[in-house]
Amino acid sequence: CDWSSDVCSSDLGGLLGGYATVEFAKRLLGFRGVTGDWFATVVPLSIALGRVGCILHGCCRGHVCSPAWWSVTDAEGVARWPAAQVELGFNLAAAAGFLVLRRRGALPGQHFHVFMVAYGLFRFAHEFARATPAVLGPFSGYQIAALGLAGLGAWRFAQRRRGAGRPAVRFCDRNHSMAKSGHETDVLRSKCFGDD
Cβ contacts of residue 25 below 8 Å, gap of 6+? Predict the structure, then answer.
């Protein structure tokens, strides 16, 4: 794929743009509950589905390599690194891992941040095996975006961790809190909405 291909560039850009949009909307609406844990399960499945499309379409190819048991053959009969298949496997494994974290109640409120770091670092490293044009030295545009994604995830993880001592409820009855008035409303709202 080339850098301008919508099929190949939508996941990293979509993650960064989608995260920014959700955070902006939450602040605009005054909602400070945690919303990302389920996204950490759904997003990898969505990317995995997209990679199935890449495999069927023949895009997002890996570098040319010697034929081996793990290599794939493109439409021209050339052996390549199985880039789309590897990313499919990574995202399926990530979705399964976050389901386990949810069942165990581990790292609540941090799942999507963990996914951003993990996927960003994975994608940065995996790009070296993909047939992607370099735009800055040896690095592709995807790698620059991947580092941005990982950095943003690490920063937000640290922010959430610093605020972990404050009480936070993911969801609450807004109608109940709005039915109150004055100081009591402010107290209820502060209990309902912790860090975003």
Answer: none
Residue 195 near residue 32, CB atoms below 8 Å: yes
Can you give 105-150 as a three-state secondary structure string? CCCCCCHHHHHHHHHHHHHHHHHHHECCCEEECCEEHHHHHHHHHH
Which one-letter DSSP state was computed for residue 4? T
- Give the tens place of pLDDT for each residue, 69-86: 999 999 999 999 999 999
- Total number of residues shown for the chain: 196
Of 172, 58, 47, residue with least CA distance to 120? 47
Whether residue 6 is predicted with pLDDT greater than 90 in this model: the reply is no
Read off the pTM: 0.77
Sequence-distant (6+) residues with CB within 8 A of 61 are 1, 74, 80, 83, 84, 130, 131
140: left (phi over 0), alpha (psi -120 to 50) or beta: beta
Distances in whole angstroms, Cα of residue 141 to Cα of each of 7, 22, 116, 136, 162? 15, 24, 17, 8, 32
